[in-house]
Specification:
By secondary structure, this protein is mainly α. The protein has 2 domains: about 40 residues; about 45 residues. The protein has 4 helices and no strands. The longest helix is centred in the middle third of the chain and has 24 residues. The chain is elongated and about 65 Å long. The chain starts with 9 loop residues before the first helix and ends in a 7-residue tail after the last helix.
């Protein structure tokens, strides 16, 4: 998967480098290296899909950002109001994570 800027991820770059190396030499050693790199990348993607960790991380970033935005937009908020908003946004985060338990893997 590419990052939000459209550039390759480190894993994609590494895979492309291994592919380029194999295409230029077509040696068994480079083919084995390419196979290993691709196997690791596929394994990592399967693990992310099974665990949902990439989605959990995205939900966590979203939660933190929404709390930060609330604090910036409400600099005079009372401690009780801040606590209430944080609890509400953390509950939304927890609900999204809980929903991953029943979401299809693919």
């Amino acid at each position: 998967m590419a990052n939000s800027g459209g550039a390759m991820t480190n894993a994609q770059l590494f895979q492309q480098m291994a592919l380029l190396r194999w295409l230029s030499s077509q040696t068994d050693e480079d083919r084995t290296f390419l196979t290993a790199v691709m196997g690791v990348q596929v394994g990592r993607e399967l693990l992310n899909r099974f665990t949902g960790q990439d989605k959990v991380d995205a939900y966590k970033r979203e939660c933190i950002l929404s709390i930060s935005e609330f604090l910036q937009q409400n600099p005079q908020a009372s401690q009780a109001n801040i606590t209430s908003e944080v609890e509400k946004r953390v509950l939304v985060f927890a609900t999204k994570v809980k929903a991953l338990e029943t979401a299809p893997l693919f």
